[in-house]
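Technical appendix A lists one of the benchmark inputs used to test multi-chain prediction within the project. The record comprises two sequence entries:
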Amino acid sequence: MILPAADELLAPVTAIDGFRLGCLIDASTGMVLASKENPGGSPPMSAVAGAGAADIFHVLTMLSGRLATGERLQDVTVTFNDSFFMVRPIGLDEESQILLLIMADRQRTNLAMAHRTIRDFCASLAS
Amino acid sequence: MSLIPKRTRVRAGLVWPGREVDGYANLIGARLRKLAAAGSTGTLPVSGPTDGAIILHGGRVVHAESSRTPTQRTGDPAALGLAPGEAVSPVEAPSIGMVAGLLAMTEPIIDAATELLSSKSRYAKFRRSEAPVAIAPHPIPVTALLTEVERRHRVLSQLSAVVTADTPVIRSSALAWPRLQVSAPQWALVVAMSDGMTPRGVAMKLGHSVFATTIEFYRLIELGLLAAAGREPPPADGRGTALAFMRAVHNERDTDG
């Protein structure tokens, strides 16, 4: 990782039941800044997952750019048959384009609790 | 042993098996990997389309600068309230500001390395040193840097059909959409530019990353707010030009060097 020192920042989100992967991504460049994976999980996938999260953010930014409703993206949840893929911009101001990506096991994750943990984590970082 | 100097062999395309013809960037990468493996400290000068240098400390990259990217400005450790060499403890003070601060320090290094490791750059003799001129609080592993630089080159290759860092850009005279919404950073770019400026020119003016600015210009062109001078606008369906970070990720395992 580019910022291995920031990996420990992600420690709180590893408490999410079914946690598989957490990443901090610079949305403006698509670069994965830090990541934390569930030990013993699948092979490293942060580069691909981070790129996917940045692409999703880019497409939705283009969507809001053309809809011009004055709204800003708050979060994205993608449901696969076996996992959840959750993306949330960190920070309240537009200058910050750092994204949090969480992948979690669908069978073991309480989605509402996961959202709450992610929201609290982002709020604690932004404060 | 060949009597032809190494540089001449490479220039003539008489390269060793496994090395690409004209693949100077690969040679710089190989040199950096060797220096990293040896835990070297010092400066690797690079010349070519972009002049600059990559500085290592203990085999990790602590600084890079090129003549075609902004010099480290917000990346000053003092911006984080740190003395040179002092480390940030993310456990003690976790905040998005800290991550943004770390990013502000590393982005100029990666941006410069992306320019320096172009296919036409060459390295000169490594100048060993006991104490480098600059020590970033968090040195970048060489393997991670090279992986990121390769990814960025692939992203820039995708964008080149529409815009490069050196493409003159103008404001669109007629918008294709009745209303458009842009972010504050995007609007700052639109305000900072004048017709005919390049993404690199705007990045140098604002002290921003050339790579990130080029991507942002691509997005503004895709939105129809800007246009590349002398080029056809990208097709409305995005065929063959759409930016996809996924396509730029190489199929290899992550290594942190």
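Residues 60 and 66 of chain A are 10 Å apart (CA to CA). The longest helix of chain A spans residues 46-67. Comparable benchmark entries are summarised in Table A2.
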